[in-house]
Amino acid sequence: MPAENPPVSREAIRLLFVGDVFGRPGRKALEQGLALVAHDGPIHGLFINGENLAGGRGITPRKAEECFRRGVSAITTGNHLFDQKEAVALLSSEERVLRPENYSAGCPGTGHRIYTLPGGFRVGLVNLAGRAFMGPADCPFAAADRVLEDFSRATDPPHFIAVDIHAEATGEKQALAFHLDGRADLLYGTHTHVQTNDLTRYPGGLWFVGDVGMTGPRWSIVGADPVPALSRYRTQVPLPFRVGDGETLFCGLLLTVSPPFGRGSSQVVSARLIREIFPAEASGEDRRESE
Length: 291
Ligand SMILES: [Fe+2]
Ligand SMILES: [Fe+2]
What we know:
This protein is α/β, with parallel strands linked by helices. The protein has one domain (13-281): Metallo-dependent phosphatases (Purple Acid Phosphatase, chain A, domain 2, 4-Layer Sandwich), CATH 3.60.21.10. The protein has 7 helices and 12 strands. The strands form 2 sheets. Strands 1, 2, 3, 10, 11 and 12 form a 6-stranded mixed beta sheet that branches. A 6-stranded mixed beta sheet has the order 4-5-6-7-9-8, covered by helices on one side. Helix 5 (170-180) links the parallel strand 6 (160-166) and strand 7. The protein is globular, with a radius of gyration of 18 Å. The two termini are 31 Å apart. Mean pLDDT is 93; it is low at 285-291. The protein binds fe (ii) ion (2 copies). The site of one fe (ii) ion has 6 residues, from loops.
């Protein structure tokens, strides 16, 4: 956060939320997708889930930095966060990377921060993990309550609050939507890698989507090469994991927020799910990625 906050822009703000970016094909599709979205106007804030950034498994400083260079404002994560050991140091050193807020108190890093975008618009970003069919985590509902309280006490509170619920179960995500309606601006799901057709404005003003979807290999089993992944399902014999290749998917949620800005007054004037397919790269380098 800068020492002095710049004046808040009077222009409409475009915020893009991208789900799990999977390996090198996902990072390439992110680059292509951003170019496409930027055709219609600037992207002021760009938030991705990076739990699969590095070869489909975890996140490294190098892959995070690559995303920041492409304009990513902040990265949320999830259950694959610690697949790469470098994530521990990254959480302590990089304020633009979050881990689920409802992980153990002793876990490095934090699950919420306020990010000031160029122009002065402040986004309060929250990263939560679900508990149904997922690994152990504290209560995401109580964690959300604590974060909202924390945001409300900030010297410069966010103009817009966005929550990434990294979870498997639709019911848990919808329950959180009712819990947060009227208190946050956006609740978006990640983790399942499949975009859901349920973008909805709740009665209290919360925008919700069950999952924004994966950005990564289209012909894959949630990002992985289908050959070893299918074999494992059929035989239960593990085979070496490979990132899928070929065509890619770019999935995201684009919101336009218009002034006057401020919690309770920031107005989402348009919300649009994006799902684009890009052709395979000429080379097969994505297959050779090992990180
Ligand atoms: Fe994922
Ligand atoms: Fe996940």
